[in-house]
Amino acid sequence: MADNEHTTVRIVDIARMAGVSVATVDRVIHNRGKVSEENLARINEVLHEVNYRPNLIARSLASGRQYTLAVVMPRFAQGEYWADFDAGIVRAEAEARRYNVAVRKFFFDQYDRSSFGKLLATLRGETFDGAVIATLFAEMVAPFTRELDERGVPYVFVDSNLPECNQLAYFGTSSFDAGAVAARLLFDRLDPGSDIVVGRIIHRGDAGSNQCRSREEGFRSYLQKQGFRGKLHYAALRLDDEAYNREVLDDLLLKHRAIAGAVTFNSTCYILAGYLAARRRTDVRLVGYDVIRRNGQMLDEGVVTALVAQRPEAQGYRGVMALCEWLIEGRRPDTAENNMPIDILLKENIRYYKNNLI
Questions:
Q1: Is the distance from CB of 26 to CB of 11 less than 8 angstroms?
Q2: Is the distance from CB of 159 to CB of 172 less than 8 angstroms?
Q3: Is the pTM of this model over 0.90?
């Protein structure tokens, strides 16, 4: 049977192919009642042959079971990276309702480690059947997932992966490889002896997210392999404090005149871009991450050289739907590590990108 026929196969078709009654097939599919080993083997052979998937909506409605999924993610404002992730959650939520699955969102401050700790304390008092977890604070996520393991609660990771945990699946990019991509985009445009500014947002109580650290490792690894002879200079920057950032960057660029490149490992590329535009520093190439509004504007204006993107809408959507399929059907994702494409956005192609992500 061709793949496009699998979605329309009926129980009566399976019964005919296996040479058994419809009632016998029904008992096997819904795991109720006894079936002889011979009939069970014949039915399972047919199910495998046609790649049979039961109707999730019918199954969930028939069971009458209500499920709740927790989505653990940073707070956001419209136009920011996590707003795009939330758009995927909203789309999945609309589909999940048909399966008697409700979605609850729990928010934390991505720049404040203590905020995440407080949220975990709240989650320990909540009841839910599955969780989609943004893994920014890896050192705190890993112990929490061991508690979920003990409770028998399945969970999916987004943003960056933690291979040591027992997650049902991961949806996101390879952060290390995404760092290498950024390094190549920058290094190919620089003299090997040029210096590079690394913009870092000052975190409260933490040195940065798990994803940013992995990206930086990939970035450094690529430069080392390519014989980079320059230096990396770190600029500790603040959100929404233009005067402070200007002072920091003025001092850094005055002291290190060999700086010809710049990078940020999160979605705040627009901070460095705004400074370069204001100072008319067209001699500094800048690479960043994520196609949020302010980054996209700076790319379109030519201040940002390139952006590396990771399809946050798809991460949110696929994370929720994977848990729905596991809870209702008991079906795992085809692969545990679902690496998204690492997209490279330039001034010439960004206008084709935003509306074609899911």
A1: yes
A2: yes
A3: no
